[in-house]
Structure formats: structure tokens, C-alpha cells
Amino acid sequence: MIIGLGPGPTRHLTAAAREALCRCRGGLYFRTARHPAARLCHDRGIRFISLERLFRRSAHPGRSARAAGRILLTALEQHPYVGYAVPGGPPGTELTALYLKKQAPRRGHRVRTIPGVGPRPAGGSSPLGKLERIMTALRSSRGCAWDRQQTHLSLRSCLIEEAYEVVAAIERADPAALEEELGDLLLQVVFHSEIAREKGRFDLEKVINGISTKLIRRHPHVFGAERAATEAQAVGRWERIKEQERNAVGRAAIQVDPGLPALLRAYKIQQRAAGLGFDWPSLEGAVAKLREEAAELKDAYRRGDPGKIEEEFGDLLFAAVNVARFMKVNPELALGKASRKFLDRFAYIAAQVSRRNRPFSSYSLEQLDHWWEEAKKYQGKNS
Predict the structure, then answer these.
(1) Pick from 371, 290, 358, 365: which is nearest to 324 by CA?
(2) Parallel/antiparallel/unpaired status of strands 83-86 and 28-30
(3) Rounded to 10 degrees, what is the CA torsion of 351, 354, 355, 359?
(4) DSSP string of 284-338?
(5) pLDDT in tens, 180-233
(6) Euclidean distance between CA atoms 286 and 292, whole angstroms
(7) Left, alpha or beta for 45 (phi > 0: left; psi -120 to 50: alpha)?
(8) Lowest mean pLDDT among 167-181, 236-250, 308-322, 336-350
């Protein structure tokens, strides 16, 4: 294993690098014993050999790298795991590492590279760089206990909540709230990128470069020689390129993230199926299917079969999502808007009840419904 140690302090050691250092006991070699990680290993009783003498004041770096590489290849014949620990981030470009990656496979050995934490990009003085530094500090040993304990899994609900709060701010047409909520959502991107950076997987720079490359690749009519005169042509070309990308990596014809909310996932599944030609020719077919599913749900309810009722209700929702797609309505957003509208109107009813100092149970449905209608009129005047 070629182990990246990061730029200096041991707090920059990734979890994968720490595990590798422990795993290679007896076959651990350091490029230099002056790196703080070497002192950490010494303090914890992990034996290692320093190859620093081969490189010190050498006039022939390539010759020194080959000499170190031969020592490591010999060690591979004696130990099940051999680690070569290198200062810095991506260790695959160090001369000895390059020698090993070329020679070890010829002798039947597999070389695994464990990237270390690289230096921050030069743009670290930008606002985004400032946010990165803040997150790094929060996750450090001197930072915040809560931030330090978070993982990709533990932050899932935060990411979903922040995305929905952005949508709510947009629908309220509230620029100040939108500015704040976009910042909260950006924090989630930086948070997840920092967790991945600590583990040596990727960092925010790779995230940004990845989406930049994807946007350029999927817009050949903007960044290339192709042309798209209409929105429909641009969307069609985008979908064709996505389909080519899925085919290139052997993905299924329809593959939608199972972690999406059910309504949004159904919407995307139907979009993908329609893109492959499996679709109603017109809205009328989708509406007829919706009526058919409603009738089947009523029939299942009359029979009193709980399992069938659930199944038919799911079919009804799926058919309703298809109708929404034909009408160019996102069902997730539509249902969210309907829920917020209900809450606003119900808040009006609750205010009327509270004003009279009597419990809800003391009012008839007719009286509550009267206030509901008042709330609708009030909303209509203020919308």
C-alpha cells in the first residue's frame, strides 16, 4: 500500500491512512521519519523503517527512488502487507510510488493507493475557501463535538430539510430568506465534502470540477459545435447524453435513486420510461388510467382486503403522478404547496378557536368549515 500522510500535522491523517499504518505492522516504511505521522507510530509502538537515508543529498533522485522501490519489493516477499508512507496528498506521483506501481504487478503484487489530504487550493481566500476553513476547524480535535461526530448518514435529514426550506423560501417570494436558506444548503455540500476529504475519498474541489465537467459535456450546443434552437431540443440532447453515460457504465435502462421521496422517485421513473418510448400517447390515456385505478381502489375497499387496498392506493398515486407529469407539474412540489396551504388555512381556524377560549371539540364541523371558507377568501385576497 502507498499511504498518503497529508501535509503535516497528524490531524490531517485520514481514517484510511491510520488504518493502513496499523495494518502494515512489520512491513511499514516511511519516506522520511521527520513526518509527524512517524512520531505518532513510534509513540504507539508501531515499528517502521525510514528510507530517508537513500534520498538525503542524493544527486540522482530517480536512482534513489529505484533503490527504495527494490527494498519494498523485497519486503513484499516477506510480509503479507507492506506500506510505503509518503508525505503530502496524492502519493501516486512520488518517484518510488511510480516505480512500485509499475514493477509490483509484474511480480504478482497488487498496489493500493490511499490518498492523503492535499493542501488547500490557492483560492482559499475566497468566501467559499473561508467556509471550507471554518468547517475544517469545526471538525478538528479542537472544534465542535457535535460537528466532529457527524457522518454522511447522520446528516441525511439535515440535507433534506435544508433543500425543502430553500423551496419554501422561493414559494414565499422571500429574497432574504432565500439567501439564508441557500447558505444553509451550501453548508451541507461543504460538510459532506469535508467528511469525504478526511477519509481521502474526494474534496470540495473535486465536487466542483465534477459538476463543471458534466455541465460542459451535457451542453455541446453551448460549449461545442452543436446547435439547439429551442428548449425542447436542448432538453432532448441533455437526456440523450445522460442515456449514453448510463449505457457507458452498464447501468439499467431505468435507474433512479431509491433514497428520493416516493412521489419524486415515481415522477423520475416515469420520465425515464417515457424517454425510452414507454408512455401514453396523450394526456387522455393517463387520465383514463387514473380513473381506472380509483375504481379498483374502491373495489378493494369494499372487499376489505388491507393488503390489496394498500397496493391499489399505491397504483392510484402512481397514476396521479403520471397525470402530473403530462401537465408538467412536479408532484412533490405540488403536494408540498398543498400541505402548506392547508396549514395556513387551519392556522386561521385555530386562531378563531383560541380567540373564543373554547376547545376544538365544542365546535361543530359546520362551524369549523365556515371558518375554513373564510380562510380561503382571506388567502385569496392576500395571494
Answers:
(1) 290
(2) parallel
(3) 130
(4) HHHHHHHHHHHHHHHHHHHHT-HHHHHHHHHHHHHHHHHHHHHTT--HHHHHHHH
(5) 999 999 999 999 999 999 888 888 988 998 888 888 888 887 777 777 777 777
(6) 10
(7) left
(8) 236-250
DSSP string, 258-272: TTS-HHHHHHHHHHH
Quick one: residue 118, left, alpha or beta (phi over 0 = left, psi -120 to 50 = alpha)? beta
- For residues 107 and 25, the model is more confident at 107
- Find cell 365544542 and name the residue: 362
SS3 84: strand
**Distances, alpha carbon 54 to alpha carbons 57, 71, 160, in Å:** 9, 11, 53
Joined grid coordinates for residue 68: 527504495
Amino acid letter for position 30: F
The helix/strand/coil state of 221 is helix
Tell me if 24 sits within 8 A of 121, measured CB to CB.
no
Query: Whose grid coordinates read 461526530?
Result: 149
**Could you give the angle at the alpha carbon of 111 between the alpha carbons of 57 and 200, nearest 5°?**
85
